[in-house]
Write a structure and sequence with these properties.
It is a single chain. This protein is α+β, with helices and mostly antiparallel strands. The protein has one domain. The chain is 32% helix and 26% strand. It has 11 helices and 24 strands. Strands 2, 5, 6, 7, 9, 11, 12, 14 and 16 form a 9-stranded mixed β-sheet that branches. A 4-stranded mixed β-sheet has the order 17-20-21-23, covered by helices on one side. Strand 18 and strand 19 form a beta hairpin. The longest helix is centred in the first third of the chain and has 24 residues.
């Protein structure tokens, strides 16, 4: 009897301590409408200040461009980033090498560079290093429009703390340093090759090469392969191409432990070998909710080949592109956000301090690169392809073309349709870290950037 009393007393004490401790770890999710939040007001203020500033560009001078790449394949096997099921295991063999690719642009005194890396994302820790190192080559990170191919079979080792290591394996500071140095090497080489060019843009619908992986046929897709062409002015001058598509680079499943660029790698290789481009570069588009066509081929590699060849054929068959008037602008804007709320239930999330321990606290930005009527917007997330039609149509009404790319050096999870916020699922709850209302918020930011003169 005495033992039972002691046991019951102990249970009561433990429960009481748990009730006291729980509020320190969790809180109710914030559902304040976006338009009533302080961060929305801050963003409007930032955009208004940009709208009121003049952006002089010396249009009397032509546009110069140069391009280069640097091999970022590690000397030894590294964790393979992209699928939590792998638990940070290293790849076993190399199927194809991975690269950092750069296109340097200059018009008058305005400099910009487009960078793509064959990585899952551009991790925040790499961004912090690039911010420190860019001045050594005469540029700042604010002049860099950066993105990733989003291959789920590239290297990890770049994420600190629990969440980063869950998807990318144990953090390796030396490897992140090497990545930053290779990116700088690619930029420096591209800068040294700058020559006069003319540019054009095309968007080619390829609806049979992707699907809506979140809600299937109930949702919409972003079917466009977008392409920026750069052609030297001299006879037989070099030419380059920048491409972007919305399908996730997940044709290779989590069981494939081989280093690979996935379908974007075969696409850029084909554009260079088969279509004569001196350099091709790929940036993941609005990949949120968008997956690759699933019924293509019996194996992962057949699916990869089908997707890459389909996109290459679209480029080869395209005969229409829009000439772009040289009018180069590059802009990096701070992106205020709601306090992070990683939810474990519909209305409950972990507190900010715990989120910081699990992931970290990083600043986030929006990147905007303008070349004539083409507006490129880089966002720190998996931005949903379901949001693209309205934004593309809006840009068209303004006489502009829009290309949105994901993974701009920060990462805030998935931005999906606001109507999905209360759905359970990987993209809508587990990886929706700063909602609700972010689809409307991010879309508003994009529209205001399109509106800039």
């Amino acid at each position: 009897m005495k033992f039972l009393k002691i046991l019951l007393k102990s249970i009561v004490i433990i429960l009481a301590l748990m009730m006291i401790a729980i509020p320190f770890f969790i809180r109710r999710a914030d559902r304040t409408p976006i338009e009533q939040t302080d961060f929305h007001a801050q963003m409007l203020s930032i955009l208004d200040s940009v709208q009121n500033q003049s952006h002089p560009v010396d249009t009397s001078t032509g546009l110069l461009a140069g391009w280069a790449k640097a091999n970022i394949s590690p000397a030894k096997p590294m964790p393979t980033a992209g699928y939590g099921k792998r638990e940070g295991k290293p790849y076993q063999t190399i199927h194809d090498s991975i690269y950092a690719r750069a296109i340097y642009l200059q018009q008058g005194q305005t400099q910009a560079v487009i960078v793509s890396c064959d990585l899952l994302i551009i991790p925040p820790e790499l961004t912090l290093l690039l911010q420190q190192k860019m001045p050594s080559i005469g540029m700042g990170f604010s002049q860099v429009y950066i993105g990733a191919t989003h291959s789920h079979n590239s290297i990890g080792g770049w994420g600190k703390r629990y969440i980063g290591e869950l998807f990318a394996g144990k953090y390796d500071a030396a490897m992140v340093e090497q990545l930053a140095d290779k990116i700088l090497q690619a930029i420096s080489m591209a800068k040294g090759k700058a020559r006069p060019v003319q540019l054009s843009y095309a968007a080619m619908a390829q609806p049979n090469l992707l699907n809506n992986r979140t809600v299937g046929d109930k949702g919409t897709e972003d079917p466009f392969l977008r392409a920026l062409y750069l052609q030297g002015l001299e006879p037989n001058a070099p030419k380059a191409i920048l491409t972007s598509f919305a399908a996730h680079a997940t044709t290779l499943s989590d069981s494939v432990m081989r280093l690979s660029r996935d379908y974007p790698g075969q696409l850029v290789d084909g554009l260079e070998k088969d279509l004569g481009f001196d350099q091709a570069i790929y940036l993941a588009g609005a990949v949120g909710s968008m997956g690759p066509e699933e019924e293509a081929g019996k194996t992962d590699w057949e699916q990869l080949n089908h997707l890459a060849k389909g996109l290459e054929n679209a480029i080869q068959q395209n005969a229409i592109s829009i000439p772009l008037k040289p009018n180069l602008q590059i802009m990096t804007l701070r992106l205020p956000l709601r306090e992070p709320q990683w939810r474990f239930a519909k209305d409950w999330c972990f507190r900010h301090w715990l989120w910081t321990k699990l992931y970290g606290d990083y600043d986030n930005e929006v990147k905007m690169l303008r070349i004539g009527s083409l507006v490129m917007v880089g966002l720190p997330c998996d931005f949903s392809g379901e949001l693209m039609k309205d934004l593309t149509d809006y840009a068209t009404t303004k006489g502009k073309q829009l290309m949105i790319t994901s993974f701009n050096g920060g990462y805030v999870g998935y931005i999906t349709k606001d109507s999905y916020y209360d759905q359970t699922g990987y993209e809508t709850r587990i990886m929706n870290w700063f909602g609700p209302g972010n689809a409307a918020y991010f879309s508003e930011v994009v529209r205001k950037l399109v509106d800039l003169p």
